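Format is chain and fold; as here:
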Amino acid sequence: MDMKNLNKKLNRFFKDYNNKLTLISGIFIAIGFIASRVFHQYAIRDIAYIIATILSGSEIIFRAIGALRFKVIGIELLVSIAIIGAFIIGEYTESAVVTFLFQFGSYLENRTLMKTRESIKILTEMAPQTALLINEDGSHSEVDVDEVNKGDMLLVKSGAMIAVDGIITSGDGYIDESSINGESMPRHKKKGDEVFAGTVLDGGLINMRASRVGEDTTFSKIIELVEEAQDAKSPAERFIDQFAKYYTPAVLVIAAIVFIITKNLELAITILVLGCPGALVIGAPVANVAGIGRAAKSHILLKGSESTINYAKTDAFLFDKTGTLTEGKSRVSDVIYFGDESEIDQLAASIENTSDHPLARAIVNHKDVDLITDIKSETIKGMGLKAMIDGKSVLAGNSKLMESEGVYINDKAKDKIISFQNKGASIVIIAIDKKLSAIYSIMDNIKPDAREMIKELKRLGIKKTVMLTGDSSRAAQAVAKEIGIDEVESELLPGEKLDIIKKYQNEYNYNVAFAGDGINDSPALAGADTGIAMASGTDVAIETSDVVLIKSDLNSLVQSLSIAKKTSRIMKQNIFIAIATVILLLIGLFRGYVHMGLGMLIHEASILVVILNAVRLIEFKSRD
């Protein structure tokens, strides 16, 4: 048998049986302890400890040799040398305890990582496997989901899982989207609506056209994001990796020098054992994975350890208004007409039908009118829309647009606008052929948990809360006053939001988090120290932001910051515990207070402490 095959077989053996070998090793340690303390059978004790060392130490030595083949000097090499040295000097108790505690610490670490990855496993198991493909002759056939291509027509029956992202082409039904956004109530979807892979059609029958397939689906991207986040390393972890890289050889050199000077092999071996940076190497990564896993359980995606630590440092929280602090479901609350109502409603709805803005949707849905669709509108950034409809010039937008286009607004109309804005309404002014025709007052309900969210953020140490909006100052101030926002920046063009973020970063030296919808606010999301996408299931939200709130409620935002801060604290605690333990043990060793057995017990206990400290994150509640 060649060496390569032998290594493969040994690797598989240890992977399959290492936990069992560690358990049996623990049993032999107990036998040795009872044999010596109860029956005074020291020969049996030594045999039991030797067997325990071989059972749990073989895998450590195997890993050390494997690392050396790739010129990597790691913690396993220190432990291996300590095991062999303890055998040489006849310290079988120490060798057995060292190997058992080291393996038990590895078991606990792997157990913690497994628990935090359960959310990914559950998502993966929920992934659809097959789809009903509609053939050209109208028949349908069941195919593997990997065989579905973009543009294919699919049939989804009641109770079936939607296989890929797509657009409904006919039919309707209630869709359970809890796997994507965490919402328990099914949503009614009809022709033209978007549906996502991994969601379930609770009732109805739909035909759909595939728009995103395979790894491009929202469901797949969520899984990929969590996996990448848990594998990503923070600056602290990268520092620890570099530290361990040079620290291990340094300990070997120090132990060799001590042996040369003192001729005391036991002291040199004890230095090797106590100098192992086990807790330091394990502490930060296990906290990172536990924190990201805990967030994933709450439908919060933290993009890696670096994003998490940076988020925890947030000083100022900036918010987009529409869809973030408000529900984004605008409705027309009042209209003042200056002409034929039916004509104005038709022209206003027709021009607004060319836009996806929430204010535009509110006007389109205000009345059931015959839309004129054969038109092309021009978007005036930050102001509104302009179009020719049936030979008439139509403007729809704010006061800035009217002023720039020379539309006169009399004092009575201005007073009405101010009255609406004082109530927190947004205003859309309609002008036909350069004449003021209507003023639409549009309300967007504030999210019920917005005020509580602001209070909780301040409890978590946020120094400043700011709302950024393109709305008028009066409308913005009314919303800010109701929910307790500190400052308001209103009447902003899309690019100006990024300028405000830069101002808080550079002039005030704040670490800025920005929460937006992930579409119109993509420059602001990218420019902030931490970009938080409130809108679930969009490509921009997943790719641009550092934190994605799949369940787009404000409680998730508070939870995300709370988990990030807790993760950061535990990571720092673990690093401190690890370094302090090694320093104190080495001082105790040179001063004669610590021997190998006691030192190893304390050393391995520190590894268990940092793991158990990280485990607290898994069940952490934001109010803890």
